[in-house]
Each structure stands twice: as C-alpha cells, then as structure tokens.
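During the reporting period the student researcher (J.K.) took over the structure-prediction task from the postdoctoral fellow and processed the backlog of single-chain submissions. One of the processed entries is reproduced below for the supervisory committee.
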Amino acid sequence: MDMPVKHKKPSIAAQAAARTARFPKLPEHLLDGLVEGPMSAMEVEDLIDAFGKAVIERAMAGEMNAHLGYRAGEDKPAQQADERNGVSAKTLLTKHGSMRVQLPRDRDGTFEPVLIPKHERHFAGFDERIIALYARGMSVREIQAFLAETYGTDVSPELISEVTDEVMTETVAWQNRPLERMYPVVFFDALRVKIRTDGLVVNKAVYLALGIDANGERDVLGLWIEQTEGSKFWLKVFNELKNRGCQDILIAVVDGLKGLPEAINVVFPKTTVQTCIVHLMRNSLDYAGWKDRKLVAAALKPIYAAANEQQAREALAAFAAGPWGTKYPTIVAAWERAWEHVVPFFIFPPDIRRVIYTTNAIENMNRQLRKIIKNRGQFPSDEAAVKLLWLALRNVLAKPSRSVHTWKAAMNQFAILFGERFTEARD
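J.K. obtained the following structure tokens:
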C-alpha cells in the first residue's frame, strides 16, 4: 500500500532564507558607504526607509528617461518639445508605512509611469498586505485600526474596500474557469453564514464542490450561496459545471443535500450518488444517549463494513432486532431512508471505499473557512461573503497538499470498474 507523502512546513528560518535569496546582492563598497559604524535600531530603520525612498525616486527617474529619450542633464532630441518639468511630492502607502517621495513630471503631461501610476497612492505590496488581512477574516475597520497601530498609516475605509473589491474580478474569473473533463470523485457539502438581506440578517448556506481529479489532486470546483436548497438550485449548479467543461462525475459523495440526487442524474445520468457514511453515523448517534454512543457505534459498524449489500442488509436487520435498534428505532429509520444511496458503497472495492467513505476532505476545508468567518459575525451582502470565502480558499489551496490517501491503488480500481469513462479522460 502506498503511503501518503507528508509535506513538512518550512521553518521560519527557512522561509526567511528563501525570501532573502530573492534579494539582489548589493556591492560591498555601497554597503560600506551606507554603514560606517555601529548603528541603533532607529538609525537602521531610518536608513532602510531612506534607501527605499531613493530607489523609488531613481526608478521613476529611469522611467522618465525612457519616456523622453534622454537623461537629465543631456540635450533633448531635436524637434522634441516635451521635457522635464521638475518634480511633485507624493505620499505613498507602502507595506512598511507612509513614505514621502519626489516624482518627476514632464511639461506636456504625457508621462504615464508604470511603477507608480498617476493618482495611485499605494505602492506594490501594500494592496497585498490589505488583502492578506482581509483574507484572515478581519473587517474593514479592523484592518484600518491594524494599519494605524502597526505602521502609523491612516488609511480610509473606502480605500480598503476599493482594494478588496478588486478581488471580485479574480473571483469571477475563478468561478468561471474551465474544469477537467472528468472527476472520479466530487464531494458536496455546505456551511452556514449570516448575511444581511433587505435589512434582516439571514442564515444562508454556502455550498462547496471539492473535486478529486484523475491524479488524486483536490480542486474546489466552485462555491454557491443559496438560502434554500432544492433540485432547481442543484440543477443550476450541475449545468454550470457541465458548461465549464466537466462532462462526467463518476461518484458524487453527499450529506443529505435536498434535491441533489435528482438534479445530478438529469445532468450527469451515469453518476453514482453515495451518502457520506461518516455523516450518516454521526446523525445516527445524535439519536442515542451520550453513554450509549460508543456501544451503538460498534453495533452499527457491521453494516458499513459488510462485504456486500446482502450482508449489509442482514446486519441492519440484526441491529433493528437487537437491543439498540429496539431502544433507538429512529436510528434504524435513518438508515432505511438513506439506504438507496448507501448501497452503492458495497459495490466498490476497499481501495475506492477508503476514498469515498467520508467527506472529511471537504470538512477539513470547511473547518478552516469557519475559523476565518467566525469573527465576522455577519456579511453585508452575498458578494462580500463570496469575496472573503474565495480569498480564504485561495490561501488554503496554496498550502502544499498531498494526494488523496491510497490514491494509486484506488486509481487502478477506478480504471477497472469504470473503464473508458476513467481511462479516456486521463489520456
């Protein structure tokens, strides 16, 4: 059995070394000229700020040279009217705080700088800092207070909102990006968020689809917000996935989402809908008393551990006739209601069962999202919720991930069980 590859998170020292490796190496004589003797922490900080200011002003001067076609102090080209016209002071917001710089101007006003565009007040890196804070769940007011306290920079709520609103362009592009032609497994789940709608705070569901591609890598296919679920909503979701290029889903793993089985069978008629066994167990144990739960769980295990559907049905009947089924008939009823979407589980070999046994893959992601949205309380709109959740997802997916446990063995079983539906999509 192939063991999963564990990715160890780089140490703080290793991360710092990686960042330092990207810095250009400065000539020794330049450093000697800047640092001639012992310096205090304040003097070092002032020197860093002065150096940053000098680099920005020098880079802007270089842009002006390229725009005019000659350097300062040289003769301008013949028949050229445009020329330098002094400098203008501008306060920039950087990730280290505010900085006052002198930027060059030309007489015709045709100079369009790239490094610091006209009317731009925040330097490269500042936007990323705001977005990073927002992605961690901080509100606009909290970001404003943090920047003021940490960098001594007074940033308006409007500017912060403007920066984070730019993320929506990326969000829309992500939500409409092309998908893989086939996904062996897609997990569907939901989490609840509070969103202000028409003056009222409403609990809405955010639905996520986490696909496992043919190589065992995870990919969030999209997220959707809906106040109530149903077949009409899910039909819209599945048509969207198909229009974006997904032509087949082999197994959809769900947790009792209303209307999903009916809708997916319209758009993807060959897809097998599988109930999440772990969710079904949890729901069952909710009916049992606290002291009985461990014993009830042990009594239910023969059902989902059965070799085939017949043995599973016999195990369910034995549970129903036994002491726990007699004491908790609601547990028996829960399994019988879900049985239609439990039985596919017994068709699959153990390697595939391990993959689809639970929606833990998507639950782990939801757990991280809940941490981020916990302190927000409520969102002013659906768009604000989508924006933050996508930023949070981007951070989660950016972390090194490992392939689904035992995927290599499962991949071979998928190829045997689903034939060309699996193998042709991998070619």
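The committee noted the following: Residues 205 and 228 are 7 Å apart (CA to CA).
J.K. will present the remaining backlog at the next meeting.
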